[in-house]
Write a structure and sequence with these properties.
Residues 385-413 are annotated as: Disordered. It comes from Bradyrhizobium brasilense. Residues 403-413 have a biased composition (Polar residues). This is Integrase. The chain has 473 residues and is mainly alpha-helical. The chain has three domains: 1-97, no CATH class; 101-224; 232-464, hpI Integrase, Chain A (Orthogonal Bundle). Helices cover 43% and strands 7% of the residues. The protein is built from 17 helices and ten strands. The strands form four sheets. A three-stranded antiparallel beta sheet has the order 1-2-3, covered by helices on one side. β6 and β7 (281-287) form a beta hairpin. It is elongated and about 80 Å long. The protein starts with 26 loop residues before the first strand and ends in a 9-residue tail after the last helix.
Length: 473
Amino acid sequence: MSTRATRPALYVASRGGQVGKDTIRYFLFINGRWRWRPTRIMRKQGFGLVTLGRGGPGLDAKGNPKASVEDQQRAIELNRAWDRVRSGHASAPARTTLKVYPEGSVGDGYQRAMALRKATRVKAGIVWTKRQEKRDGWPRAWKWIEPKFADCDPRTIEPEHFLRLDPITGEAKGLVPEIEAKVSITERHMTIKVWRALWKKMAAMKYCSLDGDPSKGFANTPPDPREEKWLRREVLRLVQVAWRNEFYGLAALIAVAWDSQLSPVDNRSLTLGQARRDDGGVHFDLDRTKTGRAAAATLTQWSLAILIAYLKKQFGDVELMDNVPLFWTRGGKPVSRSGETGQWGGDHGGGRHIVPRPYSESALQQDFREIRELAFGKSEKRQLADMRRSGAVEGDAGGGSVEDQSNKMANTVDTNKRLRRTYNPVNVVSVRRFDQARAVGAKKLEAAEQRAAESVTLASLVTLLKSDTGSVN
């Protein structure tokens, strides 16, 4: 194998001090390398596995290649860091800062970059929610970058560590094909984007040269955009099937998702405290999880009626707190307790969820997949997230402006972001204009499909909500 395909060099800073002969805690020879391996409790505090050198040329008392003085000193310093944390003498502002990487290494640069990103937000007065932190691409990409490069000198990393040709099999190897094989092209694209941004910051820290980024040796081609879309009558069918199979929370969520054009994560996070009423009807006032932009999630009479019917059926007379998520999985009836939610019992509906809970990402995906299969068969692969795009297609077909679309979707789909935010802020009137354009566009799209248009009105709501328990009053 080419030397360029070998692992880049570890970055070990020069330090003085003698290492004693006592056994060093958590310092083990595993799979051909000396490693500092924290316990489960230590990992919960943010410490991670640190891979060190191979040791040698001599052997220690156990027959392993003798660890270098630098590696032993590194392990001792890691133990000291842990001792400071467990004794309460070290603050822990973020999990990543609890891990100790060699000075000047990629891991060290990542920690400094994360601190700089947070400082930039603090300076601007921006406070991320837990959901926004969870959706941050940097920690997600770091899960791929860390095992390969965290303790390495960035100047020793080559393009072949990302992408190379196996001389024996002729197959592509490296981090890029590994990510695509294990997850997706989208995951690879995101990871390399983060790496390139990290490299620029490390160059500013003088860890490497700006033009020495090894990932620039290949193109980071983005995945083909999704083009799938739903028609209104198909969404109505999904809601019907969900309601009649007693997925009441899912039925309401789908209806709200269709009208609001919010992403699935923003929809399942809606609360009663975000609801607003104006002359045009009801909407939810929120900041989008991904972008943090203000959004006005408007509802039609159709989605509002389904939402109200669901809330009455799911919660009855129990008063919801303003911060309680609206959409819950299937389950029993609520226990009547003043001011409390989430006290449930029984197996109403006999579904997979005996105890109802606010929809999580996995539960929503699983339930939607089940209802989609019941409605359209196993071959159907469209997703809930495709409804967001479908609404944009409708509005465009109905002549909606790009500014109104940007307001509706709470993104920067229009080109001039700075002027857009300055002179045309988000407003509900603009959003409702786009809703009207969607209604026009829906009819045009249905006609283009040469199928009868199905009007979604309160009249059809009575038929929609008919079930074994009777109709909605």
